[in-house]
Amino acid sequence: MADHQENPPLIISKIAIIGAGVSGMAAAKQLCHHNPVVFEASDSIGGVWKSCAYNSTKLQSARKDYEFSDFPWPNRDDLSFPSHIEILDYLESYAKQFDVLKFVKFNSKVVELRFVRHQETVELAGNAGEYGSPLPGRPVWEIAVQTNDSENLKWYAFEFVVVCIGKYGDIPKIPIFPHNKGPEMFQGKLLHSIDYCKLDKDDASQLLKGKKVVVVGYKKSAIDLAVECAEANQGPEGQPCTMVVRTLHWTVPHYWVWGLPFFLFYSTRSSQFLHERPNQTILRTLLCYLLSPMRRGVSKFIESYLLWKLPLQKYGLKPDHPFEEDYASCQMAIMPENFFTEADKGNIVFKRASKWWFWKEGIQFDDNTKMKADVVILATGYDGKKKLKTILPEPFRSLIEHPSGIIPLYRGTIHPLVPNMAFVGYIESVANLHTSELRSMWLARLVDEKFKLPSAEKMIEQISREMEVSRRATRFYKRHCISTFSINHSDEICEEMGWNSWRKKSWLSEAFSPYGSQDYGQEK
User: Rounded to two decimals, what is the model's pTM?
Assistant: First the structure.
């Protein structure tokens, strides 16, 4: 807990933005007429693209699917996936184009927030009243900022705070082990993927080359890491990299399925019509039920291609659940081109295990087998909620917890019981940049009081309906993912802003063209 300084908090702007990643830059651009202050803990913008990228990290989609509505990529028709360096360059160009870097205070880490409107304490049991004014004319939050790792803190006061620190990076999620079976038993090198990200190419290669490396995990970061490990271990002196896999997920080699573009199956109005959405009528619920065989057929059609194209069955990597469950939870990953090439050469091997722990020379599994290891890298994800909890005060710290595992946010942005605060970048879809930008547009209009939020009670009801849709769509529902009803979600946001929700120029395009950021240019 930070101590107050003798001097009163500085008031330098009405709005604070915490974080200068993709979401922070989108929020800063949309709120630029308020001259916000952006606190960024590092010395540059970019967020996870700067702090949590491997040397080989690439975007998982084409450029035109990851761009701001008013700032297209210069080479947007290039179908190759841009590297993290290219993405950082794009974000830097965007920030310079719209002059948002002037709002950013670099090397300024937010360590604590304090709520100062004590006379309007939020009740934990819920509040059916109206959400208050975003800019009430007096400070609502005080923020303690640590600059350049100084021990001294500087306090600022703001009327509204936008949190954009994201769910990834900073705080690793470490598995819990039985007594005397944890990392302290292991005599080799143990690190998390966030530690590996900090290594340059030569240091990373030196860590992996000629070593028995175990990578724990099977999501995108683990897959990329295994490929880097295999590439560092070419030749007779090389050692295979072992991936310890607990939960399998579907991976795709590219965005084509049996010669058809992938967007036809999930990213158009017609394709999303097959899927349940919040607030649907009884008739539409009946239609969803009647069309469920077609929805399952689409999933099976995609699975048939993946099983033909990739040697998933050969290596025991075929998931037991349908493809649509991974898509509905935003867990579909693009497989690097040379992943199975390296596996065929024996440079990547797989070990399925539901439970494992350490012994002095490596890892032991629940089938009583042991594996020797020189290096163990945990690609086990990040604890985004813990990041929030380190800076939020009570009772708000408790309010972000929910039995669903999801932070309950209206439109993926506003917590109904946390006043004068927004969260951007905490909802996932196929294109997270577009998702953050559209919600930043919505937030800017909310702050400008161009529309009013529903009551807290109605917002909570809407959040609950979205969570229930996710729970029925996938067993991996503890992720705030809207990929199967993203167009409907955007429709409702547009309607609240007073925009036309149908953004295409023709009925045919509305039905069969994919939706992207270019469809949501600013309306005058």
Answer: 0.93
